[in-house]
Specification:
single chain, extended, 2 domains, mainly alpha, about 90 residues
């Protein structure tokens, strides 16, 4: 994939979403740097279970019905920080 295209697409997102994308990229780098090539191959070929697919479809349908009923990443972090006493 072309890095320039990714940067262009990222730049049109609002700043709060850019931060979420950055956090996700960091997660992926950390996750995959801990795995061997063999483990990565096995993970890439793994399919979602029917139960998980159904759950994701239900959540997507719920979001489409009520797109305003969401929690921002900043709200999630604040709740986590309050509950566990340290920042993520």
């Amino acid at each position: 994939m072309d890095a320039e295209l990714i940067i262009k697409r990222l730049s049109v997102l609002p700043e709060n979403l850019q931060i979420q994308v950055f956090d996700y990229i960091e997660f992926l780098i950390n996750r995959y740097s801990e795995l061997s090539d063999k483990e990565i191959s096995a993970y890439e070929n793994e399919e979602l279970s029917l139960e998980l697919k159904t759950l994701l479809e239900e959540r997507l349908a719920e979001y489409k019905q009520n797109p305003q009923n969401v929690i921002t990443w900043d709200e999630v972090k604040a709740k986590f920080n309050t509950k566990y006493g340290y920042e993520i």
